[in-house]
Amino acid sequence: MSEGSGINVTTGQLNLIARRYGVFTGSSLLDVGCGDGAWVSQLRKRSLAVQGLEERQQASAAPVDGIAVGSPAATVPGAAQSFDRVLFRGTSVRQATAFQPELMIALANLGSVLKPHGRLLIPVAADNQTEIEKWQSMLSIFPGSIRVRQLSSGIAAYLTLAFLFGGNHRVTVVDLNVQDKQVSRLEWHRLAREAVMQRMRKNEAA
């Protein structure tokens, strides 16, 4: 397993996501919750445009090139509209309940570094409908369209004989495809703040 501080995703699943979303053919990626950075390092050695963000640096580990340490609720690597894909698979903030301020700030930060037509990708357990609906609800406040995709190596793995070496991998991804016009970082945060305030008012009225 590739260890982050959130959902565990195997290297095979990570490679499947990267292949389906064009990372192996030039799309830039920010991997949030990248653990020890092994997968990010593998891709960077292939001259792919991949960066990582991990909440806590391993106590005994030396800094790894291309990997920043910090929370997505505080800051993220890169300028606004600088990545084609953001993979959000770890950090403790991911475990927060829906519409908690820290989580919404993190989503706004991650969304703001996406280019127009960029994708925010959130791997989830296929059988956890509650988790899927949580992400659909929160992402719906942001500009773009949402899909839940069931990815599988399937016939492609068979035709390339990849299954002989790495198995047939499957992963479920909640996918926010941001709109085609630029949205400022300020606007991402305005939308997040309004959603948090609306949820607070709803809870107070209950």
Account of the 3D structure:
By secondary structure, this protein is of the alpha/beta class. The protein has a single domain (11-205), classed as Rossmann fold. Helix content is 35%, strand content 23%. It has seven helices and seven strands. The chain has helices at 11-20, 38-45, 101-112, 129-139, 154-160, 163-166, 185-205, and strands spanning 29-32, 50-54, 67-69, 83-88, 114-124, 144-152, 170-178. The chain has a seven-stranded mixed beta sheet with strand order 3-2-1-4-5-7-6, sandwiched between helices. Helix 2 links the parallel strand 1 and strand 2. The longest helix has 21 residues, at 185-205. The termini are far apart. The model is unreliable at 1-5 and 158-165 (pLDDT under 50).
What descriptors fit this protein?
35% helix, disordered N terminus, alpha/beta, 206 residues, Rossmann fold, seven-stranded mixed β-sheet
Order of helices and strands: HEHEEEHEHEHHEH
Number of domains: 1
CATH topology call: Rossmann fold
By helix and strand content, what is the structural category?
Answer: alpha/beta
Q: Please give the largest β-sheet.
A: 7 strands, mixed
Poorly predicted spans: 1-5, 158-165
The CATH class designation is Alpha Beta
CATH architecture: 3-Layer(aba) Sandwich
Number of strands: 7
* Computed CA radius of gyration, to the nearest angstrom: 17 Å
Helix content: 25-40%
CATH superfamily: Vaccinia Virus protein VP39
Bulk shape: globular
Overall pLDDT confidence: 88
DSSP helical segment count: 7
End-to-end distance, in Å? 42 Å
Spatial order of the strands in the main sheet? 3-2-1-4-5-7-6
Per DSSP, what share of the residues sits in E-state strands of 2 or more residues? 15-25%
